[in-house]
Design brief:
- The protein is α/β, with parallel strands linked by helices.
- The chain has two domains: 2-156, 3-Layer(aba) Sandwich (Rossmann fold), CATH 3.40.50.620; 185-309, Riboflavin kinase-like (Elongation Factor Tu (Ef-tu), domain 3, Beta Barrel).
- It contains ten helices and 14 strands.
- The strands form three sheets. It has a six-stranded parallel beta sheet, sandwiched between helices. A six-stranded antiparallel beta sheet has the order 9-14-11-12-13-10.
- Helix 5 crosses helix 6 (134-143) and helix 7 packs antiparallel against helix 8.
- It is elongated, with a radius of gyration of 22 Å.
Length: 311
C-alpha cells in the first residue's frame, strides 16, 4: 500500500482511484462496508482511502483526553489488511482546516487525487467548519464527473456500529464486544520502554508500553496476545496507574508467558482479548505477586480455550 500525505503533485499511478472517505479511526465493520462499496462501484480502479492525520478533533481540541482507537501506523496496517492500495493520509493543519467544502471537492478530490468514484457514510462532513455534507458532495461530484455511493450505517441488534460505541465498550471493559464490531481484537501499538523493573523482582518481568495518544481502555487486567519475531505469544497485562507502586502515569504493562527475549526498543502490537478484573491497590508486594499469579493462570486458561476452539 502506498501512502501520501499531500494531494498535490501526485504521481500518475496514485490518481484515478475509487476512494473511501472518512476518519477511519478503528477501521471497524462500518468502515469496511464503505471500502467494499467503493470497490464494488469501480472494481477496475485502485482501492483508496482518504483520511487525515492528526485526527481533526486532535487538531481543534488538543486539550481533550486521548481518544484514538488506532494511530497512524495501526490504521494503515488495518486498511492494508482490507485490500487498500492507496492511502491519502492528508496532513491536517490550519491551511487544510480552512479549505471550503466546495474547494475540497474540486481541488482535493477532483483535481488533486483525480478520484473516479467516492464512497462515504451518510454522516460524512467536510470542509471549513464541517460546512459540507453528502448532499453537497453529491451535487458537486456529479458536476465534476465523479461517482458517489452513500453507504448506510452497518448495524447489529444494539444499533449502528460506530467508533464512539466501540470506545465506550473498551472504556467499560468489554474487549470481546469491541472486537465483534471491529472485526478483530482491539490492539495497542507502541514501543517497549524501560520501566521501574519491579515486576522482574517478583518473578513477572513486564514490557512497558506508554498509552500515548491511544484511548485508555478500562483500567484493569487483561488476557492479551502479541506477535514477537513472527510468533504469536500469550500474556497477561495491566492497564492503569499501578496504585500498589504509586504510579502516576497510566500505561500498559505486559507479562508474556514463556518469553525471555530483550524487548526494549521494539514496537509491539498488544491485542486485548478478555478483561479479567479491575485494577486495585494491594497491601503488600507479596499480595500483588499472588494476585498476578492468579491473573496469569486465568489469562492462560482463557487464551488456551480460545486457541482450541479456533479451526
Amino acid at each position: 500500500m502506498k501512502i501520501f500525505d499531500d494531494w498535490r503533485r501526485l504521481p500518475v499511478a496514485a490518481r484515478g482511484a475509487s476512494v473511501a472517505l472518512g476518519n477511519f479511526d478503528g477501521v471497524h465493520l462500518g468502515h469496511a462496508a464503505v471500502l467494499r462499496a467503493a470497490h464494488a462501484a469501480r472494481p477496475d480502479a485502485p482501492r483508496a482511502v482518504l483520511t487525515f492525520e492528526p485526527h481533526p478533533r486532535e487538531f481543534f481540541r488538543p486539550q481533550d483526553p486521548p481518544f484514538r482507537l488506532t494511530l497512524a501506523a495501526e490504521r494503515a496496517a488495518a486498511l492494508a489488511a482490507l485490500g487498500v492500495d492507496i492511502l491519502y493520509q492528508l496532513a491536517f493543519d490550519a491551511n487544510l482546516s480552512h479549505i471550503s467544502a466546495e474547494a475540497f471537492i474540486a481541488e482535493v478530490l477532483h483535481e488533486g487525487i483525480g478520484a473516479v468514484h467516492l464512497a462515504c457514510g451518510g454522516d460524512f462532513a467536510f470542509g471549513h467548519r464541517r460546512g459540507g455534507d453528502v448532499s453537497l458532495l453529491a451535487v458537486h461530484a456529479e458536476t465534476l464527473g465523479m461517482g458517489l455511493t452513500i453507504v448506510p450505517a452497518v448495524a447489529d441488534t444494539q444499533g449502528p456500529i460506530s467508533t464512539t460505541r466501540i470506545r465506550r465498550l473498551l472504556q467499560d471493559g468489554y474487549p470481546e464486544r469491541a472486537a465483534a464490531l471491529l472485526g478483530r481484537p482491539y490492539a495497542i501499538r507502541g514501543e517497549v520502554m524501560h520501566g521501574d523493573a519491579r515486576g522482574r523482582t517478583i518473578g513477572f518481568p513486564t514490557a512497558n508500553i506508554p498509552l500515548g495518544r491511544h484511548l485508555e481502555p478500562g483500567r484493569g487486567v487483561y488476557a492479551v496476545t502479541a506477535s514477537i519475531g513472527g510468533t504469536v505469544v500469550k500474556g497477561v497485562a495491566n492497564v492503569g496507574l499501578r496504585p500498589t507502586v504509586r504510579g502516576t502515569e497510566s500505561r500498559l504493562e505486559v507479562h508474556f508467558f514463556d518469553v525471555e527475549a530483550d524487548l526494549y526498543g521494539q514496537e509491539l502490537t498488544i491485542a486485548l482479548h478478555h478483561f479479567i478484573r479491575e485494577e486495585r491497590k494491594f497491601d503488600s508486594f507479596a499480595a500483588l505477586k499472588d494476585q498476578i499469579a492468579a491473573d496469569a493462570m486465568r489469562a492462560r486458561t482463557l487464551l488456551d480455550a480460545a486457541s482450541s476452539s479456533t479451526p
